[in-house]
Amino acid sequence: MSIPFGIIPSTLTGLGATGSSPGTGASLPESSFADAFATAVNQVESAQASAKTAAMDLLAGGKGDVHTVAVEAQRAELSLELFQQVRNKFVSAYQEIMKMPM
Amino acid sequence: MSRMMLEKTGLELGNYLTYLTRREEVIASNIANADTPGYKTRDLASPGDFSSALADWTSTVEADGLPSHNDGNNVAIDREAKLLAENSLKFNLATQMLRGEFKDIRSAIEEGRA
Amino acid sequence: MSLFNAIAISASGMEAQRARAEIITENLANADTTRTPEGGPYRRKDAVFTTAPMPASFSDALSSASGVAVSDITIDDRDPERRYIPGHPDADAQGYVAFPRVDAAEEMVDLMSASRGYQANVAAISAVKDMIARSIDLFR
Fold it and tell me: How far, in Å, CA of C22 to CA of C114, rounded?
């Protein structure tokens, strides 16, 4: 029996894509894996950029405070950890589905 | 798991720390000028809202109710000493709480692993 | 950064009080100096404190917290104290000797004030150092 692609989130068929692909069938609530993935990637990138800017401003220009740079750095790290969890969930969900008997 | 959650992380406590930092500067200025003729003790305006991302405490006001000496200076060193001690304690508490906040979020993220 | 600026402010306070203490010590040491190269008895000095802005590298443009500096050292121009000591080498024709207007008790009170002021600035720096250390701990 072939997998009825209609009921599987379209995002799984586009494994590796970082953007959300147009739906081919069933509509799911907004929190599809690809959307969550894309959001997390963006969040990590912007958090890390922001942390880096804050750190450089402080070290090179003496602008800003140590504690605000620390908060930015922690946010960046937490974003990364969150991203890793999302990615892991994504991968294990995919693996679960691939294990389903055909 | 949302963008909003992490953006707000440490916002309020971070703002509070910024407030304490600015106040420390003003206290240092009062202490340094404790013997400057004509100098009036300064303080920050009211704390305001710590939850706003735009919070800022750069403006200072004259502190009320302090009597002046003959040379016009009204710095009371015991007031400044008290504020210095209080500021340090608050800073201590706030940094501890902030560390707790990060730790809690980290735990929540890791719990999702199960 | 604000906390480094606070240290700069307290350091300026320490320096001003130290300079003040130095001047008071000079007054005390010369309390009985009746003869100076410029002529006449020693004239006591006073340190004048004024607020001083901090270097831009530490302070934000918007910060209005300022430090302190000794802007001037004024010479006390009151007439010297005249004491009747006829045999004194610096006695004038009438037998009076001109002495500096240094009141040791007054100078000592002033010196204690400078010392307390200095200590207060030291305490402020110590508190700020602690805050910086705790801020750095936030990275852990």
Answer: 10
A58 contact residues in C (CB cutoff 8 A): 1
Report chain C residues touching chain A, CB-CB < 8 A.
Answer: 1-4, 57-58, 60, 132, 135-136, 138-139
Residues 6+ apart with CB under 8 A from A24: A5, A6, A10, A13
Question: Best of B4, B5, B7, B96 to disrupt the A interface by mutation (most A CBs within 10 Å)?
Answer: B7
Q: What is the dihedral of CA B33, B38, B42, B45, to 10 degrees?
A: -160
Ramachandran quadrant class, B38 (left: phi over 0; alpha: psi -120 to 50; beta: rest): left
The structure tokens listed for A70 are: 């620390």
So what's the pLDDT on residue B4?
Answer: 47
Instruction: Report ipTM (2 d.p.).
Output: 0.91
Three-state DSSP state, C71: strand
> Global pTM?
0.83
Which pLDDT tens digit goes with each residue over C98-131? 999 999 999 999 999 999 999 999 999 999 999 9
